[in-house]
Design a protein that fits this description.
The chain is built from 3 helices and no strands. It is mostly helical and 174 residues long.
Length: 174
C-alpha cells in the first residue's frame, strides 16, 4: 500500500512537529517543576519534623521548668514559714526578756530604796518603819519578845535591837 500524502497533511506536518516540540518542552518543564516541587515538599517535611521536634523539646523543657518553679515556690514558702515562726519566737523571747528586765529593775529599785532607808546593814527588826513613833512602838514590842527574862530572850539580840534602835532614832530625830 502506498502512502498517500495529501497536500493538507504536509501543511500541518510542520505545525504538528512544532506542537510536538512544544509539548515535549512543556512536559520537560513540568517534570522539572514537579521535581522541584517534590524536593520542596521533602524539604518542608524535614522542616516540619524538625519544628515538631523543637516544639516537643520546648514542651518538655517548659514542663520541667514549671515543675522546678513549683518546687522552688514550695521551698520558698516553707522557708518563709520557718522565718515567720523564728520571728515569732524572737518576738516572744524579746517580750520575755523585757518582762525579766522590768522585774529585775523593780527588784533593784526596791533594794536600793531599802538601802536608802536603811544605810549600812539591813535592819530586819525595824523594816518598814518610817517615823519616830512607829520606831518606838516596834522597839517596845521587840523588847517584850526578846527580853532576857522571857523564854525566848537573849542578851545579844537585845543589844542588837538597842543598837539599831539608837541608829534609827538618830536618823528620825534629825
Amino acid at each position: 500500500m502506498a502512502q498517500v500524502i495529501y497536500a493538507d497533511e504536509e501543511l500541518f506536518r510542520p505545525v504538528e512537529v512544532e506542537l510536538d516540540e512544544r509539548y515535549e518542552a512543556e512536559a520537560d518543564r513540568l517534570k522539572d517543576e514537579r521535581k522541584e516541587l517534590l524536593d520542596e515538599r521533602r524539604k518542608l517535611k524535614r522542616d516540619q519534623i524538625e519544628l515538631e521536634k523543637q516544639l516537643s523539646e520546648y514542651a518538655i523543657k517548659k514542663q520541667l521548668d514549671e515543675k522546678m518553679m513549683s518546687s522552688q515556690k514550695e521551698l520558698f514558702q516553707k522557708k518563709f514559714k520557718i522565718l515567720e515562726m523564728e520571728l515569732q519566737k524572737l518576738a516572744e523571747e524579746k517580750a520575755r526578756l523585757e518582762r525579766e528586765k522590768n522585774f529585775y529593775k523593780a527588784v533593784n529599785e526596791n533594794l536600793e530604796r531599802e538601802k536608802a532607808n536603811d544605810p549600812g546593814e539591813v535592819r530586819m527588826l525595824f523594816r518598814g518603819i518610817d517615823n519616830l513613833e512607829d520606831l518606838k512602838k516596834r522597839h517596845r514590842e521587840l523588847i517584850k519578845i526578846f527580853h532576857p527574862d522571857n523564854v525566848n530572850g537573849d542578851t545579844s539580840v537585845i543589844q542588837e535591837i538597842n543598837r539599831q534602835f539608837d541608829e534609827l532614832k538618830m536618823k528620825y530625830q534629825y
